Amino acid sequence: MTVSKYLLLKLALLFFLFPTFLAAQEEQSKLTGPVVKGIVEQFVSMHYSQKPLDDEMSTKIFKLFLNRLDPAHYYFLEADVAEFRKYETRVDDMLRRGNANLALDIFERFKTRLSERLAMMEEFVGEDFDFSVDASWTLERKDQPYPQTTADARVIWRTKIKFDLLTLKLGDTSLKEGKERLMKRVRGLWKDFSQYENDDVVSMFLNSMAAAFDPHSSYLAAQDLKNFDISIKLSLEGIGAVLRWEDGYTVVNSIVPGGAAARNGKLKADDRIIAVAQGKLAFESVIDMRLNKVVQLIRGKRGTKVGLQVLRKTKKGFDTLKIVIVRDKILLKDGEAQSSIFEYPALGENKSKQETLRIGVIKLPSFYVDFNDRRKNPSNYKSASRDVKVHLKKFVEENVDGVILDLRNNGGGGLDEAINMAGLFIGHNPVVIVRQSGGRRVTVHRSRERAIYTGPLLIMLNRYSASASEILAGAMHDFQRAILVGDTTTFGKGTVQNIFQLPEGYGALKVTIAQFYRVSGWSTQNRGVETSIVLPSLNNAREIGESTLDNALPWRSIDPVSYRVSGNLKNFLPELKKLSAERIDKADFFRKIEEDVLEYLTNIKPLKITSILKMQEDDTRRKSQREQEVTSATETETEEVSATENNPESKKEIKRDDYMNESMSILADYINLRQKAE
């Protein structure tokens, strides 16, 4: 994304707010008052929303900072929060002056409460718990009140320790070993937070400010910036899972396509990771451990094994199981666009003309591009649009009857790639509008590619299709060029972030500076792109997407640009929906999905509390099943890695699942209806 001259000027001015950056770096706080003031001023001025740093924003920052320290309301007492709450509308004034004393004071109180709670924990770990006595435990505590008194805190923590020990016990850990792990966690927590310096606290304060504007903006401290390239590289190593921190648990947010976890197939979204083991070593509890620490434990060299003990929400309650995954890199072939041509029975009148339809399928994991190669050799470099172009030319040469583009789980990538790829289907037409912060500049981006394929097109989407995927899908919808099939909507990320590096030693700002709009004037932000034909999916019931994130920017629309609709899909959609619904009603797979959705909405989603006795009953019943899963996971992963290493260039066929089969049926219906209309 090109940065406007205005923003570059603002960034240049920022350097003058750091009078000491040219001097020798001293081992003292860098985030001093003038520095904080400069960071705040520049962040607010550059952010897309152009929201003022006012009392409303102040209240958000105050709550976010408290939640970063104590998201599950374990540590602070209500009296602590009430004492600091009188400053919640003055945070904006403090930040504009570069004053972070409130954050430092809150953190000192947090350390005091942390010390008290850890003393309780040490006391309770020494007790002999009777697991035959039932007790309930609230897993999602973010909406629970803070304890009123120390006595209230003791009740909460004793139950918490009992529950934590039980989860370890059900994972085949002895009580003695479980208590040792919890004690290790006690000492680790205190060691971690006791080593916090003022800059660490101020950095957290600045991040709370950034998060109050939107969930994708942040302040990167100096050390975070140093590790930025490393973290990007490492994100392609390890197990291939996106993690989040929630109520003291490391939770699996999504599985990265092509990664080790995806090939393993055992780890699921929303699994809570409660312990990690290196190879054959003992499991180490990670409950209450900071997310970056857990990530460090899970990451590792390719070919090494990592064990994950997870807590999974099921129809019957909660289950614990162990999963062994061999760390790997996302192989290039897994990340590339892949294509296959499938034969599909002709429908309706087509049966008299030909026995089968030939449908080309392209699976695209991301909108990738090799920027280094593009700079060195702009006429020949690796990119998603160039690879898809090759696949489409092959389809045209082989006279396919229709094309399916699978964008499920495609989280986006390069903007130019989405624009160029759209051109392969609609030619030299406008694809997306980019509006800069404050509306200072609105740019219409047009494709420079000529149309390669003009026949029937269907795009598969789900809730994890985001960013560049939504740009392409939105353009195809507005031009009536493609049938959109899948979950109700896509993810809904319609914003652009840029990294602005600060002077050496001061980190960087990651700021939302622009927003995408479709040529129709509709934004993809927050709402996503609605599909033409919705298929039953558990994703439709789960809380996934931009709209579920705190402080996500709202959906807006702007004036559309002039464009000519290239298709007439609206004429066929009612019949296509009817035919698809008839098949789904008869399909066992989709009937089971709809049953799972109903079960989720009525039993699983409302389940916020678990029972000590119920967990043990469920564990006993599923013991043999868990042991089978462990064996299967280990053997399967070993075989997969071995096959990959022995033949890295082997071509992987696109696998047809039930969603793909229904998409083929929809496309076949469309081909048949088009021919009848002609």
Describe the protein in words:
There is one protein chain. The protein has 678 residues and is α+β, with helices and mostly antiparallel strands. Among the domains are: 5-213, no CATH class; 334-426 and 448-490 and 529-554 and 569-598 and 653-677, 2-enoyl-CoA Hydratase, Chain A, domain 1. 43% of the residues lie in helices and 17% in strands. The protein is built from 23 helices and 19 strands. Strands 3, 4, 5, 6, 7 and 8 form a six-stranded antiparallel beta sheet that branches. It has a six-stranded mixed beta sheet with strand order 9-10-11-14-15-18, with helices on both faces. Strands 2, 12, 13, 16 and 17 form a five-stranded antiparallel beta sheet that branches. A hairpin with a 2-residue loop joins strand 7 (305-314) and strand 8. Helix 1 packs antiparallel against helix 2 (33-46) and helix 7 packs across helix 8 (175-194). The longest helix is centred in the N-terminal third of the chain and has 25 residues, at 101-125. It is globular and about 80 Å long. Mean pLDDT is 84; it is low at 1-9, 11-27, 227-236 and 629-650.
Task: Summarize this structure briefly.
With 678 residues, the protein is of the alpha+beta class.
Name its key features:
19 strands; 6-stranded antiparallel β-sheet; 678 residues; 6-stranded mixed β-sheet; 2-enoyl-CoA Hydratase, Chain A, domain 1; globular; 23 helices; disordered N terminus; single chain; alpha+beta
